[in-house]
Amino acid sequence: MKYYKLVLNARKPKGFWGKMMIRNMNKNHYNVTGWGLSHYDFKKSDIALDIGCGGGRTVNRISSMVSKAYGIDYSDLAVEKSKKYNKKFIKKGTVEISQASVSDLPFEDNTFDIVTAVETYYFWPDKLNDLKEINRVLKPQGTVLMVFEMCRTEENPEKWQQVESLINIKSVTEQEIIQILISAGYVNIKTDTVKENSWLTATAQKP
Ligand SMILES: C[S@@+](CC[C@H](N)C(=O)[O-])C[C@H]1O[C@@H](n2cnc3c(N)ncnc32)[C@H](O)[C@@H]1O
After folding, report:
1. What is the C-alpha radius of gyration for the chain, rounded to an integer number of angstroms?
2. Could you say which residues of the chain have pLDDT below 70?
3. pTM value > 0.85
């Protein structure tokens, strides 16, 4: 029951179990996020955006490597918790958190050098168009970096079945992510996996 209530809050954290889930994600996504972020060479001059920022730990981490880091999430609670987690940097002006959907990003075209998305893609309502929306806000040659903990392989096609049916999402395959990034207009697509953990990272550039 506890597991069920917790997992249900991965989609859009709210209330008591949402708070628990956010705490859980900040802790449990730390290693996979660190591995994922190592696939991009962050520069001090970069402007970064983290989509589906959850509890805000990834924005916090990125902010020390770039000139400014933004985070967006469509959950009220995630925005509140991300703001709290990044209080110091928000005050300093190096972090900004706002409430928004990936489908309608409140930013001008060609704004970001790097857009990250950790463990959030599964929930997006219109994945192809959402990736196009990210493309819009990236600068030319800017990079999108997506990190997944639920990668399905031929050796392990049913690994995620229980959680998939519980929260009505689908795990991803490496090939499917490459294909959708191509369809959304990205180039220089690179992927990396840690098969024993089912981790996948994909990076791709706006032409
Ligand atoms: C599993 S949590 C991951 C949070 C964080 N990235 C992390 O790794 O700890 C997924 C997050 O994506 C957010 N999210 C899901 N769909 C979204 C959408 N369409 N637009 C913006 N945020 C979304 C949820 O509110 C939630 O905070």
Report:
1. 16
2. none
3. yes
Farthest CA pair distance, the chain: 48
Ligand 1 pocket, residues with Cβ under 6 angstroms: 10, 12-13, 25, 29, 33, 52-55, 58, 73-75, 78, 101-102, 118-120, 123-125
d(CA 74, ligand 1 centre) in Å: 7
Domains recognised in the chain with CATH numbers: 2-205 (3.40.50.150)
Q: Return the best residue to mutate from 77, 86, 99, 123 for the ligand 1 pocket (most ligand atoms within 8 A of CB).
A: 123
Query: Residue 156: what pLDDT?
Result: 87
Assigned token pair, 74: 């469509």
pLDDT digits (tens, 9 = 90+) for 150-199: 999 988 889 999 999 999 999 999 999 999 999 999 999 999 999 889 99
What is the whole-number distance in angstroms between the Cα of residue 179 and the centre of ligand 1?
Answer: 22
How far does the chain reach from its first CA to its final CA, in angstroms? Answer: 47
Those residues whose C-beta lies under 8 Å from the C-beta of residue 136, and which sit 6 or more positions away, are 105, 109
Task: Please tell me whether residue 84 adopts helix, strand or coil conformation.
Answer: helix
**Cα 120 to Cα 10: distance, rounded to the nearest angstrom:** 9
Tell me which amino acid residue 128 is: L
User: Using CB atoms within 10 A of its CB, is residue 170 exposed (0-12), middle (13-18) or buried (19+)?
Assistant: exposed
Nearest to 151 by CA among 177, 173, 179, 122: 173
Amino acid at 177: I
